[in-house]
Amino acid sequence: MKVKTKATFLCLSLLLSSGLMPAYCAEQSSDPEQGEKLSKSVGLEQVEKSGISSALQQAEQLSKNRDWRGSVQKYTAVLKVQADNAEALAGRGFAYSHLGEHKKALQDLNRAIELAPSRADIFTKRSLVYYWMRRFDLYKADAEKALSLTKEAPQDTDRLLYYAHMLDAIKRSEEAKAIYERVLADNKGKKDLESVVYLARANRSLGLNKDAVYFLTMAIKLAPNQEDLYEKRAYCYLALGRWDLAIADLNKLGKEPKPEPMNYAILAYCHRCQRQYKEAVENYTKALELDPEFHQLYLERGRAYHALQDHKNALNDFEKSIGADKENADAYREKAGVLLCLQMPKDALEQAKKALSLDPKVKDGYYTLGQANFGSQNYKEAIASMTKVIDADKEADQAFFWRGLAYRELRQYEEAVKDITAAIKLYKNEPKYFCARGAAQASLHNYQKAIADCTKSIALAPHRTHPYLTRGLSYARLGRYQLALKDLNQAIRQYPKYGDAYYQRSLVYRKLGLRARAKRDLQAAKKYGYGDPAAM
Fold it and tell me: Is 337 helix (H, G, I), strand (E, B) or coil?
């Protein structure tokens, strides 16, 4: 199944955080006369009318009480007597959707629409199911249909808020805003649970998340065991970037008959934003176990695996994401990034080009292409790619850094120093920036500057090996051989297969007249090779 939406996961999360999802969507025809017409169409005269009517009312009340299993059972009892009762089919379908049984929900709702194609409320219910299934194209189509069949805005506040949400979906935002403001005015000062929740939902729909949190907190005090309130508040915290509070509220869920995949997905997203990648992977996995067709989560879980440097699982997830949607530029770009980590630059280059061919504006597309070109030793192309990134974002410190590295490989050392200096001005605590500029300064014979940069790099990250090499050879060029030996010894101690370090130390030994040691180091340098990338 191909994913229909191109929305990012964050956009998806914020959509769901709107708080407009009603607890129940009451059966109500857009035309008062249609109830009688519908009764005739399904042969109610052949069944004891009062028995069917009573059962439907009981099922409706069970849905309002969020007893979805009880509601399904009651509607099923009606359908055993009257298989083509559109009211019962629509109600049961909506109840199924709350239990996570979306396929069964659509079967019932599709049949209900066949029986009653002019019922706005049935299209409204099906639009909600598509919304929960993340099929936003179909959700929008049903919302448009429901609105076209609705002669006037509903009087019931719960349905009115969803009516406004549908208006938002088809870009009738001013009408929607007027409804939200009307709900706020009508419920101002009220402190009963229902009114407080309406105030929260209307505020959230207007983007007033702090006010929404205030009213949801008030609602939770009134009904501490009502889980959907914690869920709504969690989505508001998500919109406010309060990942810790969102996680705390989402962890209060889980007592429903069937856990909701989206809640696990949002929980995972919050963990990832806090760099808690193991927890993110665990929750993305739970969501996918509940809904294997939630393909967008393979992309998100792959990113978490990548952050954990679990490149094999990351690559597997990105390939699954591409398999589900071969036009997903983000998945190709992420795959390129993993291939770079696996030292497969040519394959990475192919994936990066594919990402940009699908979407020239894909986030970080040219940045990844520049890295892939650098890895493939296409330094001029790398410079061109990073220049596009810099032109779009003058504060892209990493793009300045990589362009500087490419200039250095082309022996344009002054340009390299200029770009890496720009990167340092933007972010002063990155050890590799000082290390790289130090190497470029050494190539320009600016040894004192090289020593200063490498000293700063070592202070920020003593475990890094390359700055000891650059500082060591700089000391050697200045004739400070004992300091040079100290640094080169440390470089070799940290990375015993560092060919360049052995070579530079052999030169120092030769200057000191220690020919035997110089000879051994030169042999080690040849054995391990020069410029081993692992040393970087």
Answer: helix
Is residue 370 included in any domain, yes or no? no
Residue 114 structural domain: 27-147
pLDDT of residue 106: 93
**Of 86, 88, 57, 84, nearest to 72 (Cα)?**
88
Question: Hey, is 416 helix, strand or coil?
Answer: helix
What's the number of domains the chain is made of? 2
Query: Exposed, middle or buried by CB within 10 Å (0-12, 13-18, 19+), for 248?
Result: middle
Q: Is 489 left (phi over 0), alpha (psi -120 to 50) or beta?
A: alpha
Per the domain annotation, does 466 fall within a domain? yes
φ, ψ for residue 355 (rounded to 5)? -60, -45
Q: Which amino acid is at 42?
A: V
Q: Report yes or no on 54 lying in a domain.
A: yes
Q: Convert 200-214 to b/e letters by CB count within 10 Å (16 or more is b).
A: bbbbbbbebbebbbb
Residue 306, both tokens: 């990548």
Q: Is the Cβ–Cβ distance between 5 and 255 less than 8 Å?
A: no
Contact 233, 217 (CB under 8 A): yes
- Tokens for 164, please give them: 């406004």
Buried b (16+ CB within 10 A) or exposed e, 498-518: bbbbbbbbbbbbeeeeeeeeb
Instruction: Return the higher-pLDDT residue of 227 and 398.
Output: 398
Tell me the CATH number at 471: 1.25.40.10
The vertex-506 CA angle with 502 and 512, nearest 5°, equals 145
In single-letter form, the type of residue at position 334 comes to E
> Can you tell me the distance from the alpha carbon of 218 to that of 330, in angstroms, rounded to the nearest whole number?
40
**Radius of gyration of the CA atoms of the chain, in A:** 32
Burial class of residue 391 in the structure, from the number of CB atoms within 10 Å of its CB (0-12 exposed, 13-18 middle, 19+ buried): exposed
Lowest mean pLDDT among 88-97, 247-256, 445-454, 509-518: 247-256
Q: Does 357 fall in a domain?
A: no
Q: What's the whole-model pTM score?
A: 0.65
Sign of the four-CA dihedral 2, 6, 8, 11: negative
Last residue of a domain, one of 103, 126, 147: 147
Q: Which of 258-272, 353-367, 403-417, 425-439 has the lowest mean pLDDT?
A: 258-272
The residue from 128, 147, 166 where one domain ends is 147
